């Protein structure tokens, strides 16, 4: 979520998390998950959207039948030319992407139709490239995606939720035991007039946020995580939240559902075996009634990992509770029974507040307001890039600086006037810029500052500028402005 405001500095947080005035939109700044998730992590694979609109993968490659691993971010293939990824989700060895063309795409394993399968014998067990999912009605575009263990959800622009894949516990609200006719099929249960506004999925459960601010669940919610102890065959409203409290975001794990309340607090249902509820104690009871995690105020983003809960507060501090398998919450010990702040490793190129978080079984990812992606936890398949496990949040190697809004030129195209380069917006905020002005396609000798005074040699020509963005430890990027009108 992009916020421009002055923030009081939080105490007791690693020095790499800086509390200051949030900068204007100069870097890729995602919105609160799950409305538009730009990162995902599951098992041995991590994903994030780059400023160039591509989805980058590291770790186990879902598109490689040979089981190859990638030690640096590698783009997924399959999106049509000109289509940019807008949000992503990850299931067990498959990935989902919402494209800027309004289509939902999937790649990876498809043995249960989780990526849809229109073949007569349902033989499309693997989709090696991002391929459109089948089943959305004509005129309905995809707004968000969510992935369970072996099923997929798509939030349609019509306010309905569509699902495909495994349906062993009613998570797709249909009588088909396994699969929903291998194509996206509407889920049932939302009250008349209520539109779905956000979705998420756990192993065998679906959770939907309604336009009425209420939460609805279907499938099997272990430990009472759907505020029910029995499987739900249609979307059913959660119970137990305080009267008058609406919900702003939802997140789901194996045995917990996490809710971001309109009061800024984080509410959790389900398991507390590892202290997921942040109460300072652990137990193996079913927690059907949502409980508020103490110590987290004014949360702006949430996620649920494998037996843990993550939240980001308004100061850009990310907190975790619950299991800490493979140090997925960093060096905080295990279990983490009260909310504690994750630490950024010393010397990292991240100096801005955290704005998004994503968690899996043994890894946690964050993205800061400068667009930098960092990870902590297990790195056995290089899913956090490079080698060696991470005990503190560490920046991904191989991140690219790329412009997602091209530079522009201001000023009057007339001899004697001065043109000024505007830097545009970048996937990772550069710490330095350099410039080269062009007369047509020819570089103007010595014209390497942010401004350029037009001379008689420019008359009758068109001018543009090349901007190069650099930042230590990142691959530099260049972008060109559009040309001016003909210089008079």
CATH superfamily of the largest domain: Regulator of chromosome condensation 1/beta-lactamase-inhibitor protein II
Give the tally of structural domains: 2
Write down how many β-strands occur, each being a DSSP E stretch of 2 or more residues. Answer: 37
**Approximate strand percentage:** 35-45%
Q: What is the share of helical residues? A: under 10%
Tell me what the CATH architecture of the largest domain is.
Answer: 7 Propeller
Number of helices: 0
Overall shape: it is globular
Taking all Cα atoms into account, the compactness measure Rg is: 24 Å
- Give the averaged pLDDT, no decimals: 90
Low-confidence stretches: 1-26, 31-35
CATH class of the largest domain: Mainly Beta
Main sheet overview? 4 strands, antiparallel
Q: In what order do the strands lie side by side in the largest sheet? A: 1-2-3-4
Please provide a written account of the structure.
- The chain has 488 residues and is mainly beta.
- The protein has 2 domains: 39-395, Methylamine Dehydrogenase, Chain H; 403-480, Immunoglobulin-like (Sandwich), CATH 2.60.40.
- It is built from no helices and 37 strands.
- It has strands at residues 39-42, 45-49, 55-60, 69-75, 85-91, 94-99, 104-109, 126-132, 142-147, 151-156, 161-165, 185-186, 196-201, 205-210, 215-219, 232-237, 247-252, 256-261, 266-272, 283-292, 299-305, 308-313, 318-322, 336-341, 354-359, 363-368, 373-377, 390-395, 403-405, 408-410, 418-422, 425-426, 432-439, 442-443, 451-453, 463-470, 477-480.
- The strands form 10 sheets. It has a 4-stranded antiparallel β-sheet with strand order 1-2-3-4, with no helix packed on it. The protein has a 4-stranded antiparallel β-sheet with strand order 5-6-7-8, with no helix packed on it. It has a 4-stranded antiparallel β-sheet with strand order 9-10-11-12, with no helix packed on it.
- A hairpin with a 3-residue loop joins strand 25 and strand 26 (363-368).
- The radius of gyration is 24 Å and the shape is globular.
């Amino acid at each position: 979520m992009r916020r421009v405001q002055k923030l009081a500095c939080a105490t007791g947080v690693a020095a790499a998390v800086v509390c200051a005035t949030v900068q204007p939109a100069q870097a890729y700044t995602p919105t609160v998950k799950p409305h538009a998730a730009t990162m995902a992590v599951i098992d041995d694979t991590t994903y994030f959207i780059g400023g160039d609109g591509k989805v980058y993968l590291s770790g186990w490659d879902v598109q490689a039948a040979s089981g190859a691993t990638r030690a640096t971010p590698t783009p997924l293939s399959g999106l049509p030319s000109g289509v940019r990824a807008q949000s992503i989700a990850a299931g067990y060895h498959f990935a989902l992407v919402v494209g800027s063309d309004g289509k939902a795409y999937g790649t990876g394993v498809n043995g249960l139709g989780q990526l849809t399968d229109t073949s007569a014998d349902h033989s499309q067990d693997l989709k090696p490239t991002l391929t459109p999912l089948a089943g959305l009605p004509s005129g309905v575009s995809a707004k968000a995606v969510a992935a369970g263990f072996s099923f997929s959800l798509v939030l349609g622009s019509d306010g309905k939720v569509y699902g495909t894949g495994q349906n062993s516990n009613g998570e797709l609200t249909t009588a088909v035991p396994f699969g929903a006719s291998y194509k996206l099929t509407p889920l049932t249960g939302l009250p008349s007039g209520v539109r779905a506004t956000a979705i998420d999925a756990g192993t065998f459960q679906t959770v939907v946020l309604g336009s009425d601010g209420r939460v609805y669940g279907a499938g099997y919610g272990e430990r009472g995580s759907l505020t029910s102890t029995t499987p739900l065959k249609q979307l059913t409203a959660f119970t137990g939240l305080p009267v008058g409290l609406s919900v702003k975001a939802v997140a789901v794990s194996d045995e917990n559902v996490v809710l971001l309340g309109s009061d800024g607090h984080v509410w959790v249902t389900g398991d507390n075996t590892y202290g997921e509820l942040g109460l300072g104690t652990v137990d193996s009871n079913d927690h059907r009634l949502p409980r508020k995690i103490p110590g987290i105020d004014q949360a702006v983003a949430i996620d649920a990992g494998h037996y843990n809960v993550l939240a980001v507060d308004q100061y850009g501090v990310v907190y975790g509770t619950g299991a800490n398998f493979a140090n997925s919450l960093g060096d905080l010990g295990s279990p983490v029974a009260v909310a504690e702040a994750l630490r950024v490793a010393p010397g990292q190129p991240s100096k801005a507040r955290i704005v998004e978080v994503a968690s899996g079984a043994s890894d946690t990812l964050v993205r800061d307001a400068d667009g930098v992606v960092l990870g902590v936890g297990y790195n056995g398949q290089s899913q956090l890039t490079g080698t060696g496990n991470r005990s503190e949040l560490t920046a991904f190697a191989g991140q690219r600086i790329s412009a997602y809004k091209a530079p522009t030129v201001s000023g009057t195209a007339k001899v004697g006037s001065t043109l000024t380069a505007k830097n545009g917006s970048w996937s990772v905020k550069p710490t330095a810029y350099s410039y080269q002005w062009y007369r047509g396609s020819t570089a103007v000798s010595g014209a390497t500052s942010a401004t350029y005074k037009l001379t008689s040699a420019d008359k009758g020509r068109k001018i543009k500028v090349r901007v190069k963005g650099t930042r230590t430890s990142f691959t530099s990027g260049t972008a060109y402005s559009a040309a001016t009108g003909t210089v008079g």
